[in-house]
Amino acid sequence: MEATEFIVVLEDDGRRIDEMRRVAAESLQAFDCIFFDNANELLSWLATHMSQTRLLSLDCDLDSTAAHSESDVGSGSDVADYLAGLPAFCPVLIHSSNAMRAPAMHMKLSFAGWPTVKLCPFTDAKSWLADVLNALEQSQTC
Prior knowledge:
Layout: E1 6-10, H1 14-27, E2 32-36, H2 39-49, E3 53-58, H3 63-67, H4 76-84, E4 92-94, H5 101-111, E5 117-119, H6 125-141
Parallel strand pairs: 1-2, 1-3, 3-4, 4-5
Helix pairs in contact: 1-6, 2-4, 4-5
């Protein structure tokens, strides 16, 4: 049996998640797309699934989740901080429109030696999918 490969998405907006799931189901059948709305849960999961992760797509802010929860759900910046201490193992997309924190995440990962990090502000699921497919293709040729 072949090992499962994952596309991992950190996103808390239900509408975006639904759109991303729809386009992923149409075009990313070779992967299991996993969605997290909590950075801490993503980091815990990643600790045991890093070798199977083929792409990470991170939002900076998790405001919607935080509004519904007493616990700290973290942020995409927390994930970038964690990843910056590791050797690069997959492409990272930062699909956030936060004009200050998204570029900071990008710089942190780039300076840490992650070769495939892309800022792709989320405009719609089809443009996100195009960035995912492009990053996956580029990572195959490295």
